[in-house]
Amino acid sequence: AGTHPDFNSHPVYIGMRLESYISAPIWVREKLWGTINFSSTQIRTIEFSEDDYEFISLMAEGIGSLIEINLLISENE
């Protein structure tokens, strides 16, 4: 993160000294609800792989689906 111009001036990077970060958006009903992310203060020596990105995307989709189910249950009650 420290070498990336979009990250190295971000307040979270500066305040928490995060060096590694991966995230995926959580979409529910075509709206962005948030993100799932993992971060570390340690510099990652190898880049995230396509499998890493796919895995975190699948987690985000699963969370979005669970939120959707919860909303449907609440609406039906």
Model description:
With 77 residues, the protein is of the alpha+beta class. The protein is 43% helix and 25% strand. The protein is built from two helices and two strands; from the N terminus they run αββα. Strands 1-2 form a two-stranded antiparallel ribbon. A hairpin with a 2-residue loop joins β1 and β2. The longest helix has 27 residues. The mean pLDDT is 91.
Count of individual beta strands:
2
Rg measurement, Å: 16 Å
User: How many helix segments?
Assistant: 2
Kindly name the structural category: alpha+beta
Residue-averaged pLDDT: 91
The amount of helix comes to 40-55%
Question: Could you list the spans in which at least 5 consecutive residues all have pLDDT below 50?
Answer: none
Amount of beta strand = 15-25%
What series of H and E elements makes up the topology?
Answer: HEEH
Dominant shape: elongated
Give the neighbour order of strands across the main sheet.
Answer: 1-2
The CA-CA distance between the termini, in Å, is 45 Å
| Sheet having the most strands | 2 strands, antiparallel
Question: Briefly, what is this?
Answer:
This protein is of the alpha+beta class. The chain has 2 helices and 2 strands, in the order αββα. It has a two-stranded antiparallel sheet.
Architecture blueprint of SSEs:
Elements: H1 11-16, E1 20-28, E2 31-40, H2 50-76
Antiparallel strand pairs: 1-2
Task: List descriptors.
2 helices, alpha+beta, two-stranded antiparallel sheet
